Amino acid sequence: MTTAKIGDMISFNREGKEHEGVVSGIRENSVMVKYGYSKAKDEPLTTIVNHKNYKITK
Description:
The protein is mostly beta strands and 58 residues long. The protein has one domain. 0% of the residues lie in helices and 62% in strands. Strand 3 and strand 4 form a beta hairpin. The chain is globular. 12% of the residues are buried.
C-alpha cells in the first residue's frame, strides 16, 4: 500500500459520506487531513484517517 505524502489529495469515508481532503500531516499509522471549512466555528475541518481507510486521488 502506498502511503500519502503531505499535500496529496485523498478520499475517505466519514459518517457514511465520502469526503476529499488534503494531507497536512503524517503519523506512523494515520494522516491528518484538512477537508473543508466550518463557517459556524470559523476554522478548518480536520480529521485523522488511518492509512488503511483512504485512497490517494491526486
